[in-house]
Write a structure and sequence with these properties.
There is one protein chain. The chain is an all-alpha fold. It is 71% helix and 0% strand. It is built from 13 helices and no strands. The longest helix is centred in the middle third of the chain and has 25 residues. The radius of gyration is 18 Å and the shape is globular.
């Protein structure tokens, strides 16, 4: 019988690995980038409705859907920007670059908390920031030109995704003060779906998947959204920040391996070094914040700012 800590770690490992499927499924969706994001949320909503109707909803707290708050609506907006930029990044650059670069999110969260909330980080964080940004630059500059239709643009989209997901995280921190993780996930997903539909139509993307395999990939993204994001939300409240910071980095590793296996994507030596530096900077940033007050924004508290989209 697993201990509560071991069970939470097992759920986190599986959830992070499941989220690593996201960029692969986007490539297989046979629809436009924003359209694929729309179907991800559209397929997730019914599952989230079932989960939030339970006596105790996902992530703790009472059951029931409740009503959306302004924070949930703002979370939906940031998540729409997050998925839109990230999916276009996946379309233009390699799966590895698109996934690793989004993991700048925890660095961005701490940096925003420093600027806006006067939460001065330790000197070690400044070193971590430099290491992560240097790694991100190396990953983009080291592309060999065979890693997507427009690797530089794709890398830029993936890096900007970290900003939008940081905003999503900070807003969710406010929303979670009065609602369960399941309720926040439900409304940010339900409100985000029509916005992504509008983005897809405005950009003239192919909305409907062109094959049965494309529909299967879209449905799988909905299931992945619930299992991956939901599992992480459940487990992060039960594990130390240092452990979660290491564990969720399984996601870019899984994505990179699948990209190599399914799409024959490779990385240059410079990119491999840059990726290691970026992930090392993320871990160092998390470690530098461990002595802060638990639960403060950017501290890697119960929710943990280390989850990619």
């Amino acid at each position: 019988m697993l201990s509560p800590r071991a069970a939470a770690l097992a759920v986190l490992v599986v959830s992070a690995a499941v989220l690593g499927l996201a960029p692969i499924l986007v490539r297989l969706a046979d629809a436009g980038p924003a359209a694929a994001a729309f179907w991800r949320l559209a397929f997730a909503v019914p599952l989230l409705l079932v989960l939030t109707a339970r006596p105790r909803s996902l992530g703790g707290g009472g059951g029931g859907t409740g009503r959306p708050t302004k924070w949930m609506a703002l979370a939906a907006l940031f998540f729409v920007l997050d998925l839109s930029f990230w999916h276009y990044g996946i379309a233009f650059t390699s799966v590895a670059n698109a996934t690793v670069l989004t993991n700048l999110t925890p660095v961005v969260v701490t940096l925003v908390a420093w600027v806006l909330f006067r939460e001065r980080p330790r000197a070690l964080f400044v070193l971590a920031l430099a290491l992560a940004l240097g790694g991100a630059f190396a990953m983009s500059a080291g592309a060999d030109g065979r890693q997507g239709a427009n690797p530089r643009l794709g890398d830029a989209f993936a890096a900007v995704t970290a900003l939008w997901y940081a905003g999503y995280f900070l807003v969710v921190k406010h929303a979670r003060g009065a609602a369960s993780a399941g309720r926040v996930m439900l409304w940010s997903t339900a409100l985000g779906a029509p916005l992504l539909l509008a983005v897809s139509l405005a950009l003239g993307e192919p909305l409907v998947p062109g094959s049965a395999a494309g529909w299967a990939a879209c449905a799988a993204m909905g299931l992945m959204h619930v299992i991956g994001q939901g599992g992480v939300a459940w487990s992060l409240g039960r594990l130390p920040a240092a452990l979660t910071a290491v564990t969720v980095l399984i996601q870019p590793v899984v994505a990179a391996l699948l990209g190599w296996w399914l799409f024959a994507e490779t990385m240059t030596a410079i990119q491999l070094t840059g990726g290691a530096a970026l992930l090392g900077g993320v871990l160092l940033a998390q470690w530098s914040s461990l002595k802060k007050t638990p639960g403060r924004v950017g501290s890697g508290g119960p929710e943990g700012p280390t989850i990619a989209a």
